[in-house]
Write a structure and sequence with these properties.
Elements (H helix, E strand, L loop, with lengths): L7 H8 L2 E2 L16 H4 L6 H13 L28 H9 L9 H15 L29 H11 L3 H11 L4 E3 L19 E3 L10 H7 L17 H6 L5 H8 L1 H16 L17 E10 L5 E11 L2 H5 L7 E6 L12 E2 L7 E2 L4 E11 L7 E6 L8 E3 L6 E2 L4 E9 L7 E8 L5 E14 L2 E12 L1 E5 L5 E8 L1 H4 L6 E11 L2 E8 L8
Antiparallel strand pairs: 1-8, 2-3, 4-5, 5-9, 6-7, 6-10, 10-11, 10-12, 13-14, 14-18, 15-16, 15-19, 17-18, 19-20
Helix pairs in contact: 3-4, 3-5, 7-11, 8-10, 10-11
The structure holds protoporphyrin IX containing FE (HEM).
Length: 525
């Protein structure tokens, strides 16, 4: 994983859990008992809903045909009796705002489950990106509580889990949340009260801790799990499944809480990585130690070439945990556009301010960058020299050897860019260097999230439009270009918002890209 990558946004979402730079996933399940809408739905638990949603999405995988799996097809399948309840649409509605050109619903839902389980005290599940969203419903086949054991064994086998793994996976799911009377009146009765309007009965006494109590209570006969000791034996699927190996698995889970956590980590990892056979997942994320965050280069109104953004530093060591960011030397050294470290651009300490952020996986600090470059020398890449305290020798972060590549050829200009509303023009402004030979076919590629019939997951729609030469810019070394467009060929509704735009140009025979520019902040007047 070398920066920049198509997974940068997801890797940030994985690594930055709370605070500055976080996109709010972990906040949706913190504390673990939090209900949807930031806590407005008594008796419901987002962490449990996300996990159940991921399982129901995956459960229609067919290991013989390779079809189905974690592909967000659940969005098109919520009308099926096997998908009873509002959890699925509530979950997709939470995540769809976070979808981008590079972040699919299936990937962000999976990431949500990984973060939720960790935040509830569960295992650290390795996360791999690359899931592709389905565009229509897949086959049916999610297990239902009234089905006999043989049917469940056959269904799990088709999903890729043997009978022992089935026991584990069900226990690993039914440690969070519970059964709601309004959705499963055949399993729960008499539970609806003013305080418990949906009549939830939890699977175990720690519904908001990812622990082995589902097993300990089963073994010591104190369980109130409605699928275990429910009044209707037909829907007591947990009872049939948990006992199906003469209690071997549940006994082990009850006796050894660490074994429960590690086994669940393995089974859930497999569950979350069960994807259609034509999908290839990327490598497991290991947070990058040093990574640029929203670093951009642009001209300010007086013609200064400004480098602005942040550097993220992540670590899992004791030194990382003990570090005081105010005492951390963090320096950016950039190479000019000819590949040499310019005498004028030797080590420059970042003028940083500490911005608080936390990670579920380690210690995290941000350092802000705000400095000016000489446009004629420009920039081609940079390295970061840093240490956890001012006494220690500096370490050089060089992005796997080549430095962090950074081009100064085609630059997005927030100034002069604006977003239109329904049926109105939006404008994107850019500057392109004019001292490097001919500029040919510059274009803007913009992607927006659009609602789609049948699912609350958004689909991403991408369009290209020409960047048109617009004369001089604030700098004599750059020319101005603009693209004026109306999204979706004439319609940008309330359900559609631009999630990224890339600027591309061939300059002097080489292609340069300014990728993943942020939202257009200013409305066009
Ligand atoms: C034979 C297999 C399974 C059956 C029959 C089954 C059935 C059920 C039922 C009836 C509910 C109650 C839903 C509600 O009232 O909102 C439920 C909840 C839940 N299930 Fe399963 N389940 C099975 C396997 C799994 C697996 C493998 C997982 C995940 C690994 C899982 C995760 C959950 C979670 C987290 C909840 C709680 C949802 C909430 O509180 O909103 N289930 N399950």
């Amino acid at each position: 994983y070398i920066w920049p990558s198509q997974w940068d946004g997801l890797e940030d979402a994985y690594t930055i859990s709370f605070g500055f730079g976080a996109i709010g996933i972990a906040d949706g399940v913190n504390p673990c008992s939090l209900s949807p809408g930031g806590g407005i739905a008594p008796g419901r638990e987002s962490a449990a809903e996300w996990l159940r949603t991921a399982y129901h999405d995956m459960a229609t995988h067919n290991s013989e045909t390779g079809l189905g799996g974690l592909d967000a097809s659940i969005g098109f399948e919520t009308f099926r009796p096997e998908n009873i309840g509002t959890a699925f649409n509530t979950t997709l509605g939470f995540f769809n705002e976070l979808q981008t050109k590079q972040i699919s619903m299936a990937d962000i839902l999976t990431l949500g489950v990984v973060l939720a389980i960790k935040n509830c005290g569960g295992p650290s599940i390795p996360y791999r990106p690359g899931r592709i969203d389905a565009t229509e419903a897949g086959p049916a086949g999610v297990p239902q509580p009234q089905e006999p054991l043989e049917t469940h064994i056959a269904e799990f086998a088709l999903q890729g889990f043997n009978a022992t793994e089935m026991i584990g996976l069900v226990a690993c799911g039914h440690t969070l949340g519970g059964v709601h009377q309004i959705d499963f009146p055949l399993s729960v009765e008499g539970a609806i009260t003013t305080d418990n309007p949906e009549g939830v009965v939890h699977f175990d006494d720690t519904f908001d801790v990812y622990d082995n109590h589902i097993a300990t209570q089963y073994i010591n006969d104190s369980s109130v799990d409605p699928l275990l000791v429910g009044f209707n034996t037909t829907t007591n699927s947990d009872a049939r499944i948990f006992a199906s190996d003469s209690n071997q698995t549940m006994l082990q889970f009850a006796q050894d809480p660490d074994f429960f956590i590690s086994r669940c980590g393995d089974l859930l990892e497999r569950m979350l990585n069960t994807v259609p056979s034509d999908v290839t997942l990327g490598d497991v994320f290991e947070p990058l130690t040093v990574k640029p965050f929203q670093l951009s280069l642009f001209f300010n109104s007086t013609g200064g070439l400004q480098l602005s953004g942040n550097i993220r530093i992540f670590g899992t060591s004791a030194a990382a945990a003990a570090a005081n960011p105010a005492d951390m030397p963090v320096q950016l050294i950039w190479m000019d556009r000819h590949g040499n470290t310019s005498p004028n651009y030797t080590t420059t300490a970042l003028s940083f301010s500490f911005l608080e952020a936390t990670s579920l996986w380690g210690s995290l600090q941000f350092f802000s960058v705000s400095t000016y470059l000489d446009p004629s020398a420009g920039i081609s890449s940079f390295v970061v020299n840093w240490a956890y305290d001012s006494e220690s020798a500096l370490t050089t972060a060089d992005n796997g050897g080549g430095g962090f590549p950074f081009q100064d050829v085609i630059l997005f200009q927030q100034a002069g860019s604006c977003h239109g509303f329904v049926n109105q023009n939006s404008t994107v402004s850019a500057v392109i260097r004019n001292d490097m030979g001919a500029v040919s076919s510059p274009y803007l590629e913009y992607t927006y999230s659009s609602s789609q019939p049948g699912s609350l997951a958004f689909k991403q729609i991408t369009f290209r439009t020409e960047l048109v030469y617009a004369g001089n810019s604030v700098s004599p070394l750059y020319d101005a270009y603009t693209a004026v467009f109306v999204a979706n060929d004439g319609f940008l509704s309330a359900n559609e918002s631009i999630v990224s735009f890339d600027l591309v140009a061939v300059v002097g025979g080489t292609t340069y890209e300014s990728l993943n520019n942020p939202q257009l902040f200013t409305p066009c007047s």
